[in-house]
Design brief:
The chain has 478 residues and is of the alpha+beta class. Among the domains are: 238-326, Helix Hairpins (Orthogonal Bundle), CATH 1.10.287.130; 334-477, Histidine kinase-like ATPase, C-terminal domain (Heat Shock Protein 90). 54% of the residues lie in helices and 18% in strands. It has 11 helices and 12 strands. The strands form 3 sheets. A 5-stranded antiparallel β-sheet has the order 2-1-5-4-3. A 5-stranded mixed β-sheet has the order 7-9-10-12-11, with helices on one face. β9 and β10 form a beta hairpin. α6 (238-289) packs antiparallel against α7 (295-325). It starts with 21 loop residues before the first helix and ends with a strand. The structure holds adenosine-5'-diphosphate. Adenosine-5'-diphosphate (ADP) is lined by residues 383-384, 387-388, 411, 413-414, 416, 424, 429-432, 436, 441-447, 470.
Length: 478
């Protein structure tokens, strides 16, 4: 049993994430710029702070090395040189700094207490430091878990080479706090960039809202609603407001052109229909009354009558369409027994009764315009007969599905190609121009059928398989 057809939505739903959208591109662009900017500043700050830290420690080690000779000279006035060396070493030693002096033959001349007691000694750092062998060095070294600034310089007192002075400055704690600070900076940067990304995405989405509104409105505009779709976007950016103004102007012009076209078609059809009806009348009466016509003359007049009939029908259909478009067509909705209308249309289309087979599964009563429904069914049956010349009969079925009365007209003809099925209800659309012309079609029949059905709050659906047949289904609310 057929159910009421559902119409497809007129626009596809917006995807949650569209990599190609302006919103995504703007957001990604601004976030990348922010990431580069903030990341760059953070990186530079971290690098600069590390430089300052290292520079201050290396300067300290260098200063001790430079002043060492002066200090020893002062102490030398009071005591022998080996003791003076030890005194200066003790004087310059701090809990984080160790000094030691090695003679050219690798004898330890003086050393800080830091090297012989405490964690330096127990961890084996002292042993590794005392093994250091370099003539001239200023470097940052990582030994075990320690980070040290090491300064090695020759010690010359009173012009004599006494040995090598080693200074080791422990910067492990500073280094650790520097690393903690760098991590905090990175974390803060990440949080700031994330918040910035959310704020930017929201801002961009807000800024693009008028464009989306414009798009939504543009997608719902039809010829009938041209005038009703004026855009008002006061809060939108200037560029979008300009676009909306041009859009409104375009709609106005289109609406005027559309109204002119409709009134032209209306007047034109009206003016032509009367003289043509007269011509048709004269032709028919000549054919009826004049018995002296030769065969070619009769044939010519018959062709002229058929063409006049076809043109009058087309003009009538055009007038109907114009009336529907301008809302002038009224529908006289009355409770109607569908069975009677269906049987009536079938009888009229097939007086002999062998081409159409009617099946009444249910006999609903609906509120509809009897004569318009009759016209619509007759048009569908005429088409079925025209386009399905074959052995198999045309099936007409009346049924009810829930709240809908269903009328199906099914033929087993040539069908309609898949790619043309969407356009079949458009005015003047014909599947096969030659075939339509020989069958006397105008291309307006289905357009009117749809307009009539929709005017009665119903729906029409098409199911067609090429070379197998076509089924039109009219659904009317019960
Ligand atoms: P026409 O007056 O030319 O028949 P319609 O609007 O009634 O115009 O139909 C439009 C076109 O749809 C026709 O030209 C025809 O090709 C196609 N069509 C309509 N009904 C059928 C059918 N039952 N089977 C095959 N084609 C059909």
């Amino acid at each position: 049993m057929a159910s009421a057809p559902a119409f497809p939505p007129n626009s596809s739903p917006r995807r949650f994430w569209d990599a190609n959208s302006l919103q995504t591109r703007l957001t990604v662009g601004v976030v990348l710029a922010a990431l580069l900017g903030l990341g760059g500043v953070t990186g530079w700050m971290a690098w600069r702070m590390r430089q300052i830290l290292l520079e201050s420690h290396t300067e300290k080690a260098e200063t001790i090395a430079q002043r060492f000779e002066e200090d020893v000279s002062l102490y030398q006035e009071m005591m022998p040189t080996p003791e003076a060396l030890q005194q200066v070493v003790d004087y310059r030693t701090t809990p984080d700094t160790a000094l030691w002096i090695q003679s050219p033959d690798d004898q330890l001349l003086a050393a800080s207490e830091t090297l012989s007691i405490g964690s330096w000694q127990t961890s084996g750092l002292s042993a590794e430091l005392l093994d250091l062998n370099a003539d001239n060095l200023l470097a940052i070294r990582s030994i075990q878990d320690w980070t040290l600034v090491i300064c090695v310089s020759p010690l010359i007192i009173d012009g004599q080479m006494v040995g090598t002075l080693f200074i080791a400055d422990d910067i492990t704690a500073n280094q650790a706090s520097f690393q903690r600070m760098t991590l905090s900076l990175v974390a803060v940067t990440a949080v700031v960039v994330t918040l910035l990304a959310i704020a930017i995405a929201y801002y961009v989405q807000r800024s693009l809202r008028p464009l989306r509104q414009l798009n939504r409105l543009a997608s719902t505009v039809t010829a009938e609603t041209l005038c009703a779709h004026q855009l008002q976007l006061e809060a939108a950016p200037t560029e979008v407001q300009e676009l909306a103004a041009s859009y409104n102007l375009m709609l106005e012009r289109l609406s005027r052109a559309w109204a002119q076209q409709k009134s032209f078609v209306n007047n034109f059809s009206h003016e032509l229909r009367t003289p043509l009806t007269l011509v048709q009348g004269y032709l028919q009466s000549t054919l009826r009354r004049c018995h002296t016509l030769t065969d070619p003359q009769r044939e010519g007049l018959e062709i002229a009558t058929t063409e006049a009939e076809r043109t009058i029908r087309m003009l009538q259909e055009l007038l109907n369409l114009a009336r529907i478009d301008s809302g002038q067509m009224t529908f006289n909705l009355q409770p109607t027994q569908l069975k009677e209308v269906v049987m009536g249309a079938a009888d009229q289309a097939d007086p002999g009764g062998d081409r159409i087979r009617v099946e009444i599964c249910s006999a609903p009563t609906v509120n509809c315009d009897r004569s318009r429904l009759h016209e619509a069914l007759s048009e569908l049956l005429d088409n079925a007969i025209k386009y399905a010349q074959g052995e198999r009969p045309i099936q007409m079925r009346l049924d009810q599905s829930g709240e809908w009365a269903i009328i199906e007209i099914q033929d087993h003809g040539r069908g309609i190609p898949w790619h043309q099925q969407a356009d079949i209800f458009e005015p003047f659309y014909r599947v096969d121009e030659d075939r339509a012309r020989t069958t006397g079609g105008t291309g307006l029949g289905l357009t009117l059928v749809r307009a009539f059905v929709e005017g009665m709050r119903g729906q029409i659906a098409l199911r067609s398989i090429p070379e197998q047949g076509t089924t039109f289904t009219i659904s009317l609310p019960v």
